[in-house]
Write a structure and sequence with these properties.
single chain, alpha+beta, 5 helices
């Protein structure tokens, strides 16, 4: 199972100038379409005097449930939104919104010049933002007898999972987050160490 995906490390803003035009590129991490739309609207309001606010976003966790969109925002077709999209998709990124704001400087750049300017602005913002590796995860809740708790902790550590919260009484109720590709392995180990007596359920 491929549960690995890449996104940006941090939000970044970079500005370039081409023949008098200012290009302000912003790379923003977004974990939902709603957040992508909200961030885009925020930039549009902030840069209301700009000539264009061109953008592209990719949201979701591969290989499924991925949504994308790009817009030239009045620039000649194919000269802004698609080049921005190509920069972020070419880097294998998701959960990212890239907006490149242009303030026209009086000199037309032509279609080739526009593609180059928007691509370069997006590339610079992406380099500044950095890239980080993430994993699709599952959350499971385990109810286990107290004597098995130490063995459970070792299994959690061994599988690279983490304990989110735990409640103790005569038994232990623990919530665990684990990389999706390792979920079945951990569940199997919990069944074995508890001799089938642990209650295991997936948390939505």
């Amino acid at each position: 199972m491929d549960d690995r995906y890449l996104t940006i490390e941090k939000t970044s803003t970079e500005e370039t100038k081409v023949k008098g035009s200012r290009f302000i590129a912003r790379a923003i991490r977004v974990d939902s379409l709603e957040l992508a739309h909200a961030e885009l609207e925020h930039i549009r309001k902030r840069e209301y005097a700009a000539t264009h606010n061109c953008y592209a976003y990719i949201v979701g966790t591969p290989p499924h449930d991925v949504a994308f969109k790009y817009s030239d925002d009045g620039e000649p077709s194919g000269t802004a939104g698609r080049p921005i999209y190509d920069i972020i998709s070419g880097a294998g990124l998701t959960n990212i919104l890239m907006v490149v704001t242009r303030y026209f400087g009086g000199t037309k750049l032509g279609t080739g010049g526009l593609v180059k300017a928007y691509s370069e602005a997006a590339r610079l913002a992406l380099e500044s933002a950095g890239v980080r590796e993430n994993f699709v995860t599952d959350k499971i809740k385990v109810d286990i007898d107290f004597p098995s708790y130490d063995s459970l902790l070792k299994a959690i550590h061994r599988n690279g999972a983490r304990e989110i919260k735990a409640d103790f009484s005569d038994r232990v109720s623990i919530e665990i987050e684990i990389r999706r590709s390792r979920t079945d392995q951990l569940v199997g180990e919990i069944v074995e160490l508890s001799r089938g007596k642990a209650a295991i359920e997936k948390v939505e």
